[in-house]
Design a protein that fits this description.
Distance between the termini of chain A: 76 Å
Number of strands of chain A: 12
CATH topology of the largest domain in chain A: Rossmann fold
Shape of chain A: elongated
Structural class of chain A: alpha/beta
Strand order of the largest sheet of chain A: 2-1-3-4-5-11
Order of helices and strands of chain A: HHHHEHEHEHEEHEHEHEHEHEHEEH
Strand content of chain A: 15-25%
Oligomer: homodimer
Number of domains of chain A: 3
Number of helices of chain A: 14
DNA sequence: TCGTAACAATGAAACGATTCAAAGCGGAAG
DNA sequence: CTTCCGCTTTGAATCGTTTCATTGTTACGA
């Protein structure tokens, strides 16, 4: 298996100059079909494969884009990356994927790696605050687009989702069903996403006649945390239960559902309407299929690549912050809900 | 932002030869500390970043390993890749990740891409049969280790998990609890994993006194498919229900659990002991925490890198096929199970 | 027959890091 | 004073591709 064949070997084998081989690969119309054929035959016979290192050394930049996400296991990011890959492929670029796992060191490691690879640009869902790092990168010609994080438009382009709007959407849906005694499950509020979703829900409740919103701190976003909240809820007398519950994510909602419907017999959606957030795969498969808020992950990925292209094209790039509004997905956990007789639904 | 600084710029700025700068980076002990200091200062001031393309062009190979998996969203692969990354990092190699999404074209695309990048080797969980492709790759000096697929040791190294053993383990566990009327849920049997797991279960049942195994074709491995099987089961009279159910994966098991415990009142594990396969995150969070079979993903990833290193080192490499045995994880869905009074547990 | 336009093919130079034989430099020994 | 040794430093050559100015070829009209 000696050494990989180079363009020079191909040239010798096909009895042409190296430049001609290169042209066959990059500017096929400049080459007569007779020669082209001979060259392609030689390529095939020698099993020649382009050496991308040499190509990009000459070109001065690669045809790759670096993407660093917080957690590849999270379907939100998986789907986002998939969309980014597809969008990048249209421009003939490939994606290098890095998983920071919420770890600053890993994140930094990938940024270094990608910079050594001379990626055209970076898509980054940052772990912490790395403004300085990004400034230095841009200085050296590596533009970065922040993903899933709203950024100051004067400094960066970013693509994010409006969690406040999502919270509003969820609460408003419950209110539209005639529910008035709402509860929000989530926490701690130090997590921005959670706080924003709660904020949006509060806004919706303020707008509605005689509606209340109770905050139930779950201190974690897992199924178990949700079940814990559910269990403490059912200790109340029936009359004091909320008639609509909005959970900061689907895992919490599934936990609440388990607790209410299986371990106690509160009916969903009849007694309590329930809605989650994220629309994970399991939402459809729950005993009572779960209503949820879906984030437009494909659009986010596509847009991120778009913004990156803009930064690459423009000489003096202006940054843009694109904010997406999430979408309501109605399923049985709220859909079958009849409004409690006493209250009139909001028009 | 003109042009990225090169080693030559650093050399000028620090008043030394390019070779010296290179030595500072790669053989620091050959350089006097005075010069080293000057060079490092220059690197810092110019914001110099190594151009990996040039480095690997000279070296003839990169320091990366390509990994192509069937589905990055699948926790099995996520965890495997993470382990492979860590193992590769020990040798100073980085991992390029590609997601074929069970698509032959995507798979092929990534293999091409990685070969152009001159990866040292490939870890591949193949979509179909690509023996020829791999032979050609090896011819050109790119060794490949197959992952999650047993391969002929004469031709490839591979790391896989013994699904037959896993099936045996699950069924044996149910039998050890005293259950005798077992059912296997899964299908279609054209999926090798499913067939193997069923095969292992059959073997265990054959060994046990008076035990029977019924095959219930779910025709799919989803929660809904599992619920479907559950629903058809409960139409039987109570006496005809199996007392132990083994599902080909956890999703099916969760579906069966939903159907039996929530929609009808079969008690788990008292009436029916239930065990799944894969040990997904949700297994712990089920209403009745689900027993399952766990695959040693970290070990698989680590071993795959090890085998690849062996292939890289050896002149005339002998291939190895490493097969891991999965592990039983006992939770409440089988643990609390009392053996039916009539039957004596197998010793 | 000659000139010239159109088209093909050529091959040297450039990209940036690494390598390595050779040169430079002090200091110690003879 | 010369020689030699060990330690630093030097800089040309190299990797494989692309680019582009140059050369070669063909065909056609004058």
């Amino acid at each position: 298996m000696s050494r990989a064949a180079s363009i020079k070997d191909v040239a010798n084998h096909a009895q042409v100059a190296v430049g001609t081989v290169s042209n066959v690969l990059n500017n096929p119309d400049r080459v007569s079909s007779r020669t082209k054929e001979r060259v392609l035959k030689a390529i095939d016979e020698l099993g020649f494969v382009r050496n991308d290192a040499a190509r990009q050394l000459r070109a001065g930049h690669s045809r790759t884009i670096g993407v660093v996400v917080l957690d590849v296991g999270n379907p939100f990011f998986t789907s986002l990356v998939r969309a980014a890959e597809d969008a990048a492929a249209v421009n003939g670029s490939a994606v290098l994927l890095g998983d920071s796992g919420h770890d600053v060191a890993r994140e930094s490691h990938y940024i270094d790696l990608f910079e050594e690879q001379r990626v055209q640009g970076l898509l980054l869902s940052p772990v912490g605050d790395i403004g300085d790092r990004l400034d230095a990168l841009r200085q050296r010609g590596v533009p970065t687009v922040l993903v899933d994080r709203l950024a100051d438009e004067d400094r960066y382009s970013s693509v994010s989702v409006d969690d406040d709007a999502g919270g509003y959407l969820a609460a408003r849906h419950l209110l539209d069903l005639g529910r008035r005694k709402l509860a929000f499950v989530g926490g701690p509020l130090s997590i921005r996403q959670v706080a924003d979703r709660l904020g949006g829900a509060r806004r919706a409740v303020t707008e509605a006649d005689g509606a209340t919103l109770e905050f139930l701190d779950s201190n974690g976003q897992t199924v178990l945390a949700g079940r814990g909240v559910g269990n403490s809820l059912v200790e109340r007398s029936r009359g004091e239960l909320p008639d609509g519950i909005f959970c900061a994510n689907d895992l919490l909602a599934l936990g609440v559902m388990q607790s209410l419907t299986m371990m106690h017999d509160v009916r969903i959606p009849d007694d309590v309407a329930l809605i989650g957030y994220d629309d994970i795969d399991f939402a459809v498969s729950a005993v009572v299929p779960l209503s949820s808020i879906r984030q437009p992950t494909e659009a986010i990925g596509r847009t991120a690549i778009e913004l990156l292209s803009e930064e690459l094209d423009a000489q003096h790039p202006r940054h843009r912050a694109v904010v997406f509004t999430p979408e309501l997905v109605v399923r049985q956990s709220t859909a079958g809900a009849a409004a409690p007789a006493v209250l009139t639904p909001v028009p």
